[in-house]
Each structure stands twice: as C-alpha cells, then as structure tokens.
Amino acid sequence: MDDPRRYAPATLRNRDPILAALRRLLPASGTVLEIASGTGEHAVFFAARLPSVAWQPSDPGAAERASIDAHAADAALPNLRPALALDVTAPAWAIARADAVLCCNMIHIAPWAATLGLMAGAARVLGPGAPLLLYGPFRQTGVPTAPSNEDFDASLRARDPSWGLRDLDAVTASAKGFMREAVIPMPANNLMVAFRRA
C-alpha cells in the first residue's frame, strides 16, 4: 500500500522560526485553524509544541488531507484534529468558530480570489481580538524585493499567471474587519503578518 505521507523540505527550515512567532501571537488556549495545511508536517510540529491549543488542520486537496491525517496518526497527539476539507473561496467553511487562523505559504500559490476568500472566511469564524496570521513572502512598498523572491515570483507566474507574490498593502486592504498588528521579518526573506479581528 502506498504511503500517503508527503514531505516539504521547506518545513524543516521554517518551522522553528514560525513556532517562535506563534508562541508570541497565539492565544493560550482554544482552537487554531490552519488553512492550507499541505503535507501536515507543520500541523504535527506545532500541535506537539503547543499542547494547550486544539490544532485544526485543513486543505482543499484530498491527497493533502490524507498526508495530514497519516502524519497525525503517527504522532498520536490528543490536541491534533483530523483534517477538514476547506476551500477558502467557499461562502461557508466546515468550521463555524476558531480562536485563531494561521495560513502559511498559500496566498502566493493561489489566485487572488483565495486571499479574498481567506479574509472573508476568517472574519466569519474569528471573534473580536482573535488573530489571523499569515506567513510567506510579500512585496512591501519602499522595501526592495530580494532577488531570490523576484526569481520565485517569476517561476510562480510561469506556472500560473494568477499566482505570484502579493503586495502587503493590497493584502492589508483586503482584510476587512481586521487591524494589522505586526509585520515580523522571518528567515529567507519571509514575513509573519499578524492581524487582529476588530
């Protein structure tokens, strides 16, 4: 039988810096909804190190959800829930409430409609003061884009013209009902962007 587990090399490089930011930004307890959990490696790593929160992974892809659940089965963590089928552009999500939303490395590998859907959905499921956290590469006004990110952007647009690095000001403007709280520089020219539900 084929092993459904998938692996993303970048996870090993970025998980510790992301975890350090999450320790500062997440609530002490409650449900963290992870959007576009991909392989599931982040979900297992974060859930193991943040045992006081319930970690809810999600992904629109069946193969990705199988990978998430296979990694989760190996880890056997009581606070890690089965992966939800969740398309951010859907008008209703498979979860009604969360205490935080985390989305790593999605909005540049998806059409702009996915960013708009993420913001609308997060506004529906989060209560006042709850965080929406975005991790990945962004363009920033007045800040030169790293050559490696320019190359990455070109490769993304070659794969799909609707993909590419997003302008942080445009992302912030799309976050209706949120206040941008922090922009935290991360390794490899990435950012952690923290919003709070108004």
From TrEMBL:
InterPro entries: DUF938, SAM-dependent_MTases_sf. This is DUF938 domain-containing protein. It comes from Plastoroseomonas arctica. The lineage of its organism: Bacteria, Pseudomonadati, Pseudomonadota, Alphaproteobacteria, Acetobacterales.
